[in-house]
Amino acid sequence: MSKRQFRVLAAGLVTAVVLAGCGGGSTSDPAAGDGGGSQPTGPLRMLGVEPTQGFDPSTAFADASRVPMAMMYETLTERDAEGEIVGALAESWEISDDGTVYTFTLRDGIAFSDGSPITAADVVFSFERMKTGEALQAQLATLTSVEAVDDSTVRFTLSGPMSTFPALVGRPANAAILSEAAVSADPDYFTMPTITSGPWSLTEYTPKSQMTFTANEHYFKPPGIETVQVSFNNDPTANAAALESGSADLAGVAYSDAERLKTEGTLQVVQSDQLAPLFWGWDRTKAPFDNKDVRQAVAWAVDREGKQEACWFGTGGVTYGNILRPWDPAYEEINTYQAGSREDALAEAASLLDAAGWVEPDGGGTRVAEGVDGVEDGTPLAFEVPYEGNWPAAECHVQILQQNLQEAGIEVTPRKYDPAAYWGDVSAGAFTMYHGGAGAADSMDLYANWFATGGSLTALTTHLDDPEINAKVTEAQQVDEATSIQIIKELEEWQADELPMLVVGYQWPQVGMTQRVQNYKPGVDADSYTLVEATLSE
Amino acid sequence: MSAVAAVAATVDGPRTKRRWKPIVGGGLLGILALFMLVGPLISGYDPNATDLTARFSGPSAEHWLGTDDLGRDLFTRMAVGGRMTILIALGAVALASAIAVPLGLLTGYLGGWVDLAVMRVVDLFFAIPTLLVAIGIVGIFGPSFTTTMLALGLAFWPFYARLVRSAVVGVRDLAYTDAARVIGAGRWRIIRKEIVPALLPLLIVQTTVLLGFAVLDEAGLGFLGLGVQPPDASWGSLLAQSRGFVLSHPWIGVIAGVPILLVVLGINIMADVLRDRLDPQGAST
């Protein structure tokens, strides 16, 4: 059997398994019987994860729910393919001289999927609901009033200036504009939302199997693809095989597969430019990570290039202090933890651990406590590090961490964790140290949502509740652009030293597509802006 | 074929067929045992030590079975992983036997409500696939070496208990047990002295067969990510790990899968050999 034959056979087998797993009891499967891609047109068949947090934009913050919600709910603004804020349901907006009043004008003739008009009253209803919801409550704290000036004009009044407000009202999915009539009429509306404002409507949802979206004919910019079918698949390692066999058109692919597919050239493989830092999170409320020296020791001991090469196959990048990437306006290179050699890095780590009271026992091995506050002397510096069980790169990354920290005298036990419970337990502070990765649209989005108290991802990343940092983040949103950049630079320097989380690099998600898919480029956030512009070839 | 040759083949055939079995089965298991015991010593590699400069290197003089995605030596990891798999299988079979044999003996010999109660519990387990029982137990207690062993042991005992009970029912009323009873032997003495010896061939063969199933099920659990956790290796977890590279580096999957096939084949052949030796009446030809 030739290598090519082997691959085809293997791809077929894996695809059969994937399809068996994805196949559900739905009888309205629009792709059923299409012979694994033999039809030239038809639905766009995507592989994705199940929206485990449901479809309520005020409570769901995980991308698994935000991505499908962004397909069916539209916001006032959105980010285009380059990340610039542009109007979505709002055609334009004006800002008062003092930066506290934002007046949005809705597009003419916009309507929900049932044809009922989208009015300023719906916007008011949606934002009043958002203000009490978990997802944006903290960020809308400065919103003192929202009122409908007329049917197509909405006025927002803030307690202080906020330059990021146009971006905030465009936060994909969470800042959704809902139909007041539809939501008020049905207590179970969010179980199967059908009257929606986005480019597609959810027309079928079979739990554990798939969901189908149909283009919203009343959307202001008709999508290029009429029907999108998303089959749920938690195993990204099987996605490439599904694409190769023609049973799926669009899916995120594992990095190992992305490299191979790029070389073979039979599929399109593109990467997302989203700012998606990879980080180690930790519990700074108790030992050992309540001590900055220990956090910095870990920062010295981790091998960043190695993990990027091994686990992300060289895609993405590494960082030795920054979170932001070199092309961000607020980027200023920080190389706090870059050593001349591995030996030098380990020496720095050893020195910091000694200073923190975690000393090497006679004969070497795992360090033990000696005079550490709240820790009995002799306690080994050992802990579990959980990671999402359905993320192969995370499993690889944690194993490299284990090897790296072993060299520094820290014993790590990798723990594969149930993906459905993972982020909930992170939020609850269940882990001493954990692996993470998340996305942000830009530097302000990152610092507002990861560092400020109540930010949408703060509880999952930095766990910060620091009034000084909150004040800095707020100030950065209230001042002119140059001053804002300067404040973000200060925050970058602060986090590199304090390490509320340890960012070690970035991942650039790889998306595989069959040749049927045209004009698609992954967006910079969870929005469906770029998917609306995609088409399927005949 | 002449008549003489045909007769000779008939006479020699079964004997010839039987002769290869212990050689092949024992040989396979012997080689694999040797591989697991001394493999890591002769390779000289730490099974968990990563070498990111040697990722995905194919079989070579330096790495006899190549390396994985983190540059770990596959020969060493297969050997150490094999130990894990075999230990789990042995532990699981031991646990299953420890539960099933006494229960099977008691229920088969005593009958009555004890038999009724235990067999209904067994029926309950029969209604659920073995692997599903194991997955449920691992799901509750979390994946680890010990949990996998316990899960498989607890999943296997009902089948074994039913088998032992059936065998006891077949033996308890035979003339020699009746004779023992007549001369005043008590229940425990009859079980120990008359019934258990009669069941020994069955127990030995069944335990061996169960060992093969335990290896396969450990591989199944490991493949599902519910067995030994990374970076430690078992054959199942190595197979699962290889899945991510099945299209780009297929040899890793082959290397991870072949030992499972060989060890189960070896165990099954040896179970057949044992049955031939211990139960000549039911011997295969």
Series of secondary-structure elements of chain B, N-terminal to C-terminal: HHHHHHHHH
Mean pLDDT of chain A: 89
Helix content of chain B: over 70%
Q: Biggest chain pair contact, residues each? A: A-B, 31 and 20 residues
What structural class do you assign from the helix and strand content of chain A?
Answer: alpha+beta
Are there runs of chain A of 5+ residues with pLDDT below 50, and where? Answer: 12-40
Query: CATH homologous superfamily of chain B?
Result: MetI-like
CATH topology of the largest domain in chain A: D-Maltodextrin-Binding Protein, domain 2
**Through-space gap between termini of chain A:** 34 Å
CATH homologous superfamily title of the largest domain in chain A: Periplasmic binding protein-like II
Helix content of chain A: 25-40%
**Most strands sheet of chain A:** 4 strands, mixed
CATH class of the largest domain in chain A: Alpha Beta
Q: Per CATH, which architecture of chain B?
A: Orthogonal Bundle
Strand percent estimate of chain A? 15-25%
Instruction: Count the E strands of chain B.
Output: 0
Write up this protein.
The complex is a heterodimer of chains A (538) and B (285). With 538 residues, chain A is α+β, with helices and mostly antiparallel strands. Chain A folds into 2 domains: 3-271 and 510-536, 3-Layer(aba) Sandwich (D-Maltodextrin-Binding Protein, domain 2), CATH 3.40.190.10; 277-506, Dipeptide-binding Protein, domain 3 (Roll). Chain A is 31% helix and 20% strand. Chain A has helices spanning 3-22, 63-72, 120-132, 165-168, 180-185, 239-245, 255-264, 292-301, 304-311, 342-355, 392-407, 419-427, 443-450, 467-478, 481-498, 529-532; strands spanning 44-48, 77-79, 85-87, 90-95, 101-106, 143-150, 153-158, 200-206, 210-215, 227-232, 250-253, 268-271, 277-282, 317-318, 358-359, 368-369, 382-388, 411-417, 433-437, 501-506, 510-513, 517-518, 535-536. In chain A, the strands form 8 sheets. Chain A has a 4-stranded mixed sheet, covered by helices on one side. In chain A, strand 15 (358-359) and strand 16 (368-369) form a beta hairpin. The longest helix of chain A is centred in the N-terminal third of the chain and has 20 residues, at 3-22. The radius of gyration of chain A is 24 Å and the shape is globular. The two termini of chain A are 34 Å apart. Mean pLDDT of chain A is 89; it is low at 12-40. Chain B has 285 residues and is an all-alpha fold. Chain B has a single domain, classed as MetI-like fold, CATH 1.10.3720.10. In chain B, 76% of the residues lie in helices and 0% in strands. Chain B has helices at residues 3-43, 74-110, 112-126, 130-141, 145-172, 175-182, 187-223, 235-243, 250-278. In chain B, helix 7 (187-223) runs antiparallel to helix 9 (250-278). Residues 1-12 of chain B have low confidence and may be disordered. Classes of the chains: A alpha+beta (538), B mainly alpha (285). Chains A and B meet through helix 1, helix 6, helix 7, helix 9 and helix 11 of A and loops of B.
